[in-house]
Amino acid sequence: MADLQKLTPFLMFQKGDAEAAMTFYTGLFADGEVLVLERFGAGEPGAEGTVKQGVIRLGEQQVRLFDSPQAHDFDFTPSMSLFVVCESAEEQQKLWSALSDGGAPLMPLGDYGFGPFGWTNDRFGVSWQLSLG
């Protein structure tokens, strides 16, 4: 039961992109890993083969993902973002390049008076803030 009490970001995809996002995100981080990947089967509420439950690890953070079988009038918003403290300028630039490619930069990578920082929505609509620690 202890695992149920952890605070874990949960990303709900509406276009069947959860598995692609899992692969993309775990490929960006050197220690990224898919921990759980369970797909909807025939006769279940979601489209067969889409993600029923997914869990990835990025650094020390677990993130849950799934493909919603229900359509919603809402999607991702920058008011909720994943904040990453990068260990080097090279890591920050690598993540920025990958996450902003096909996405929508909100604050281009630059110095805003509190150090190198960038904020972008990625190609899936998930919002990321990248800070240099």
TrEMBL record:
It holds the Pfam family 3-dmu-9_3-mt. GO terms for biological process: methylation. Keywords: Methyltransferase, Transferase, Ubiquinone. One of its GO terms (molecular function) is methyltransferase activity. The keyword Methyltransferase applies. It comes from the Bacteria. Residues 5-130 form the PhnB-like domain. This is Putative 3-demethylubiquinone-9 3-methyltransferase (Glyoxalase superfamily).
